[in-house]
Please model this.
Amino acid sequence: MPASAHSVAPLAASAPAKDRAATDRVGADRRDLLPRLQRLLSRGRVFTSPAQLAGYASDALGYKSYPPDAVVIPADAAELVEFMRGARDLGLPVMLRGAGTSLSGGPVAAQGGVIVHTSSLRHIREINRDGFWCEVESGVALNDLDAALKPLGMFYPPDPSSGPVCTLGGNVASNAGGAHCFRYGVTSHYVLGVEVVLLDGTVHRFGGPAGGRGRWREDWRRFMVGSEGTLGAFTRFWLRLLPLPEKVWTLRATYPDLRSIEAAIHALVAHPSFPAAIEMLDPRGVAMVEGSRMAAGLPRGSFMLLTEIDGPAALVDARVAAVSDILRRAGSDDVAFSDEEETRRRLWKARKAAGGLLGQLSPDFVVQDAVIPKGALAEILQLVYDEADAAGILAVNIFHAGDGNLHPNFVFNSRVPGELEKVERIGERLMRRVIAVGGTLSGEHGIGNDKAAYMPLVYGPDSMRLQWAVPAAFNPRHQLNPLKVFGERRFTG
Amino acid sequence: MKAIAPLTEERFFTVFLDAVDGTVCVPANTTGAALQARVAPHGLRFPLLLDPATSLSAHVAATTHAPASCRFGQYCDNILGMNWRLPGGRVVRIGERVAKTTTGYDWLRFLLHAGGRLGEPVDYVLRLRPACGFSLLAWFEGEAAALRGCVSRLLHGGWMHWWDAVDFVAEGDRRRVRVAVDCPPGEAPLFTEELQRVAAAAGARLTLQPATGGTLDGIPDLVLKTTPDRVIALAEALAQPAARCVGLGYSGVVHVYLREGGDRPDRIRAMVESHEQALYALGGDWHSRWLPAPAPASAEAAWLVTLEQALRTP
Ligand SMILES: Cc1cc2nc3c(=O)[nH]c(=O)nc-3n(C[C@H](O)[C@H](O)[C@H](O)COP(=O)(O)OP(=O)(O)OC[C@H]3O[C@@H](n4cnc5c(N)ncnc54)[C@H](O)[C@@H]3O)c2cc1C
Model:
C-alpha cells in the first residue's frame, strides 16, 4: 500500500542542507518512522539520531549535504529482503549505499528518506579457480576481494582508486572503471550475474557463474549494471576473474606541453604491447603534488604520463624498450621505468597522491567524468583551462587518458557566493563540447544527481523514452534513489 | 543551474573510422571481409569474426562470443554503439562511440542479443584492436588428459591474456586444442617457445601453421553458455550428434555445428533438452538461430510490456 504523501520537516536537522533538493522531501510522519523501521529489522540496526546520520549526508562530493531521515544496516541479505518488502509502504525514498565514495551524488538522500547501508553483506562466498568466477556479497570491499584472490594467482580487474573502501555493490551500480581498464575493461565486462531485491520484496537472480541469461528470455542483468541504485538492491554478484599477470613494468614520462603528451598517448594506444594503463596528470596537478609532502620530484610545469605493461616476464621484458622509446620520441627527455615493486610505487606516487590532495587546495571540488574520442584530447583540455581561467577557478586534471576518460577537478569554495554557479556554468559548456565531439557525460562515476542536469544533452525524444522505460518497469514511482540519473525522477509518495 | 532544454531530435551515428581511437562505424549488414578490408590499412582489426562472407548482424544474432573473446571479450564489449531500428520503424542511437560509459541505462547490451524481438541494428560502432603483424595457429593433439592439461596450462598461466583463442575442437572422433596467436613478428619466437613448453608439460603433440582463416569457424547452429571448467565435457557430450563442436575455453561457450537437413531444428531441440536444466542452474543459457526463443519467464512478462510500449511507440 503506498503511503499518503505529505511533506515533513527533516528528522535529522543536524547539518544545514546546502542544496535546494534537500527541501524537497516526502514521506511518512517522522514520529511513525522509528517504530516502523524497527519492526522491519533486528535490534540496533536502525539509526535516527543526528550524530548517527551525519556521516551519511553526502558522498565523496562533500559540498552537497542531504541529511537522511534514517539509516538502516540490515544484518544480512534476508533482513534486507524483509526491509525492502516493508519499505514500499513506508512512503519514503530508499537509497542503497556501499562505502559512500561516489563522486556524482549517488548514494545520498536528495529527497530525504532511508539510507540502506550494505556494510554487513561482506562475505566472499566462493572463489572458483577452475571456473574463473567468484561469488561475493554486495558489501564486500573491492580490495578485500583482491586480497583473497591474490594467493590463488587470480584477480578481478576493475580498479577504482577508492579500492580500499569502495564496495562491489557500488562498483556494479556505477559500472566502475579505474586505471587499468584501458586494457582490461570496466565492471560491466566482468559481471556474470546479479542477485537483486526489488521494491516489492521479490528476489531475482539475473545470470550466475556461467554469465548467461539463465531461465530468463532477456538479459536483465544488463540494466542492473550501472543502474545507480535506481532499480533494486543488489545482494550478491558472480564475477569473472583472470589469472594475475606475471610481471609489470611501470613507465613514467614528463612532457613540456599538451601536444607532445597527446602524441605519446596516441602512439601508446595503438601499440601492440597493449598497455594496461595510460594515466595523465596535468601541470596544475603536478604543481599541487610538488607543493605537498607527497612531492615526487616532477619538473614544475610538466605534464606527467604514467603507463604500465604487464604479462609474462619474457614478453614484457622484450617490450619495455619499445614502449620507453615511444615515450621519448613523443618529446620526453625524462622517462623513468622499473619492474621493481618499491620503485614502481614511487613512479605511481604522484598519480595516487593527487586525488587526496585536492582537499588541501580548497574546501570543495566538483569532478567531471566525461569520456571523449582521444583525437579531441588536447582541444577539450584547452577548453577546460580557458573556461576555468576565465572564471578564476582552479582546474586540476588527473585522469584515465588511454580511455579518453577526463577528470577535470574544479576546486572551489561553496561558501563564496557565486563560485558554485561558476563551476556549474563551466560544467555545462564543457559537456556541450564533449557531446559535440562525440563523447559522453560519464565514463565510470555515474550520473547521480550531480550530472543529471546534463542528460538532456545526450538523449533525443525517442531514446529518452527508452531510458525512462527502464525505471518504469522496475521502480515506477521512483521510490528507489529518486532524483538520480534523471533529475525529474521524483518520488511523490 | 538553469535547466538545459531537451533535444528535440535524435542524435545518430554516422559512418566513420577513427584510427586514433581505434573505432569504426559501419552498416550492420557489412560482411566480415568488407570490414577487415576497411580497417586493415590503418593497422587495425576486428578480432571477433567467424565468417568473412557473413554480415556482422548475423554474427551477433547467432552468438554472444567468438574464439577471440578469450582475449577481447564478448561482442557486447566490442560493439560500443549502434543505430537501432525500433519495432515501430523509428531509428534511435543506442550507446556511444567511446569505450566507457555510465550515462544512463545500458540498452546497448540489453538489445544487442535480443534477436529480432525488440528491433534490429542499422549501424554498429565497433572497437578495433591493433593488428600485430604476425598470426599463428597452434594445434595440440593427444590423449584426453593431455588436452585437458593443455587447456588448463594455457588458461591459468600468465600467457593467458595474450592468446587470441584457446579452443577445444571436437570433430567426429578427433579431439584437438587450438590456440590462435596475433603478435608482432619479432615476438613470434617467444610465443612459439611457450606453446612448445605447454605441449611438453602436458604430453601433447604440437603442430604450428599460419593462421589465415584459422578461427573462422562459420556461424554456429547452436550456442550453449556454461562455465569455463565445463566446456570440454559439454563439447564432448555434444560431439557425437554434432558435425563439429568448438568449445571456447575461457568464455565457457560451446559453438555447435550440425550437418544440414530438414530435421536440424529437431536435432537441436533434442540437444537442448538434454542440457538446458544444467545450464540454467549455473546461470547459463542456450541460443539457436534455428529455433524460436523460449517464452518469457512469468516475472519478466510485466517488465517486457513496459519496455515494449516504449519501443513500439510510433
Ligand atoms: C578518491 C576516490 C577515487 C576514485 N576513483 C575512481 C576510479 O578510479 N574509478 C571509478 O570508477 N570510480 C572512482 N571513484 C568513485 C567511486 O569510488 C566509485 O564510484 C565506487 O564504485 C563507489 O563505490 P561505493 O561502495 O563507495 O558506492 P556508493 O558511493 O555507496 O554508491 C554508489 C552508487 O551505487 C549505489 N549502490 C551502492 N550499493 C548498492 C547496492 N548494494 N545495490 C544497489 N545499488 C547500490 C548507490 O545507490 C549509488 O548510486 C573514486 C572515488 C574516490 C573518493
